[in-house]
Write a structure and sequence with these properties.
The chain is of the alpha+beta class and 239 residues long. 24% of the residues lie in helices and 26% in strands. It folds into 2 domains: 151 residues, Heat Shock Protein 90, CATH 3.30.565; 84 residues, Heat-shock cognate protein, ATPase (Actin, Chain A, domain 4). The chain has 4 helices and 8 strands; from the N terminus they run ββααβββαβββα. The protein starts with 25 loop residues before the first strand and ends in a 7-residue tail after the last helix.
């Protein structure tokens, strides 16, 4: 997928403190269907028929669907892809003289972290329906490694306010390591620092990622930084 960022190159970390626990194993699924629009979907799927695998796969698919804001309510990703293609065909029929390029819908996921406690799956989506540029976003889906249940921020972080102070300092430190001389004032559109919607795990620590337009202009793209485990471990309920 051409829009997916190099950030997905993290190595998978697999640890287990319980010899009886069998962690989920994953395979990559490609949706191989010919559409009129340019549609591609490559995503991680837990193998097997266990309740854990079923729960993980349901939550991953639901997260993808939610990110795409489909035309109609559905819990089937294939229906979402079909709906996007139908919308494109309706557009072509209504505006047959328009010379816009074909619409694009791209989906890709990556398992960025796996331990005995938590899984983090990064979901990247890109939609183009004409205009100057498309809409792309990345979200982190954190799951309980034993149940497949979606973990909320409060189930990951012990003290949100204290962690926010740590994150703000880490954000400032990350700017000093960049070559473009950006400062805190160049972000958040005049508002105070706030945590991103997307917080997930990587091999190196806790990743905080702001999507395009969330704290800066489109030209600045994604804004992300990592807090090493050595600095944030005391704030974590799981890792």
């Amino acid at each position: 997928m051409k829009r997916i960022i190099s950030f997905f190159a993290f190595l998978i970390v697999l640890t287990s403190c319980n010899s009886e626990f069998k962690p989920a194993t994953f395979e990559t699924i490609d949706v191989d269907v010919a559409y009129d629009a340019q549609i591609s979907a490559t995503y991680s799927k837990a193998k097997g028929t266990s309740e854990l695998s079923h729960t993980i796969n349901t939550n991953v698919e639901n997260a993808i669907i939610k990110a795409l804001s489909p035309l109609e309510n559905t819990d089937d990703l294939k229906d979402v892809l079909k709906a996007f293609n139908t919308e494109y065909l309706d557009f072509k029929n209504e505006f047959s003289e328009e010379s816009e390029p074909a619409w694009e819908l791209q989906i890709e996921t990556e398992l960025t972290y796996q331990s005995a406690e938590v899984l983090t799956i990064a979901i990247s989506t890109y939609e183009f329906k004409g205009g100057a540029h498309g809409s792309d976003q990345i979200q982190f889906l954190n799951l309980d490694a034993k149940t497949g249940k979606v973990l909320s921020r409060n189930e990951i972080i012990k003290d949100i306010e204290s962690f926010k102070a740590l994150a703000q300092q880490a954000f400032v430190n990350s700017l000093s390591n960049k070559k473009d001389n950006l400062k805190m004032e160049d972000f958040f559109f005049g508002e105070p620092f706030h945590l991103p919607e997307n917080i997930g795990f990587s091999e190196d620590g806790l990743v905080l990622l702001y999507n395009v337009y969330e704290v800066a202009s489109y030209d600045q793209g994604y804004t992300e930084f990592v807090i090493p485990f050595s600095e944030c471990e005391s704030y974590l309920k799981v890792h």
